[in-house]
Amino acid sequence: MAYVVTQVFSPKDKWNKITKPIKEQILQRMIVNLSSLAGENRVQLIATGQIDGKIPRVVDYEFYVIWSVEIYEMSKHITQHLRESEWNEYFDVVNIGGRALSVPEFADVVLADLNK
Questions:
Q1: What is the spatial distance between Cα 76 and Cα 97, in angstroms, rounded to a whole number?
Q2: To which H or E segment does residue 94 belong?
Q3: What is the Cα Rg of the chain in Å?
Q4: pLDDT, tens digit, 9 for 90 and up, residues 19-51
Q5: What burial class does residue 19 get, using C-beta atoms within 10 Å of its C-beta: 0-12 exposed, 13-18 middle, 19+ buried?
Q6: Is pLDDT of 2 > 90?
Q7: Phi, psi of 40, rounded to the nearest 5 degrees
Q8: Nearest CA to 86 among 26, 3, 12, 23?
Q9: How far apart are CA 108 and CA 11, in angstroms?
């Protein structure tokens, strides 16, 4: 199965202080950088959006992105491209990743952890 990367992020104060044209430039660089990976079929964007704060136990971030990559090493390219687009300067980002598991595989992992 694929490796899945989830990112949650919220704007830093620095983002709120810059002009709309500069924000558009930063977003465009991020889109170009990540589109190059998707165009080479190295990553697949599964979903992106605004986090629904009404969900119980929601994280304290505003947005999310979920990626699928063939192997773990490709997840490094996502974070590298975001750094190159200056994304991390303007957004507080948390990266979460792991191998996508079937339900039985997931149950085995959870049960194995309980036996420790």
A1: 10
A2: strand 91-99
A3: 16
A4: 999 999 988 888 887 777 766 667 788 888 999
A5: exposed
A6: no
A7: -90, 10
A8: 26
A9: 38
Q: Which residue has the tokens 């104060």?
A: 13
Predicted TM-score (pTM) of the model is 0.78
Cβ atoms of residues 15 and 91 within 8 Å? yes
- Expressed as residue numbers, the domain containing 99 is 3-114
Q: How many domains does the chain have?
A: 1
Which residue from 86, 88, 91, 87 is spatially nearest to 61, judged by alpha carbons?
Answer: 91
> Per this entry, what is the length of the chain?
116
Distance CA 90, CA 19 (A): 12
We report the CATH number of the domain holding residue 110 as 3.30.70.1030
